[in-house]
# Entry
Amino acid sequence: MMDIEVVEGDITQQDVDAVVNAANRAMRGGGGVDGAIHRGGGPQILADCIARFPHGLATGDAGWTTAGLLPARWVIHVVGPNRNAGETDRSLLTSCYRRALEVADEIGARSIAFPLVSAGVYGWPKEDAVDAALETLRATPTQVELARMVAFGRSAYELIAGRL
Ligand code: ADP
# Structure
């Protein structure tokens, strides 16, 4: 049984096997969590994205790279739906969490930290972003032992803790 916990903090500081990046389809860096992960991990992450994902990733999919200088060993990049660009299909969001756990199993990661995918610039309502995350993490069979939701700020923490 995988444990699911919530902490308030910064995804780049998490001492887990893999941290999840809320990337975009191009996988060449961006703002929000994506910018923080590339800044914190250094240029090795971008170099690995270019080498391993020459065409980027589809919405709802996941893939791994090195974590460069971050405490984690891997970054698992997921592409959440951009609601502000008309991607309103909720299964694209749940797919990110399921695919991230599948990729974690491929690489043997046993602990994984998630941001609230799509709940920033991509405009997914935060309550439903939390519910989609938690229901998918609970329903997906995996060897991962710990899933940590990293809440960026107090209000995100309260929101996730209240639905956990
Ligand atoms: P998206 O484009 O998928 O919406 P964002 O990076 O804009 O991704 O935001 C996703 C969520 O991550 C938001 O809830 C945002 O508050 C949060 N966030 C932003 N920076 C960090 C960080 N350094 N660590 C953890 N969460 C973060």
Remarks:
- The radius of gyration is 14 Å.
- Residues 10-12, 22, 32-34, 36, 80, 115-122, 150, 152, 156 surround adenosine-5'-diphosphate (CB under 6 Å).
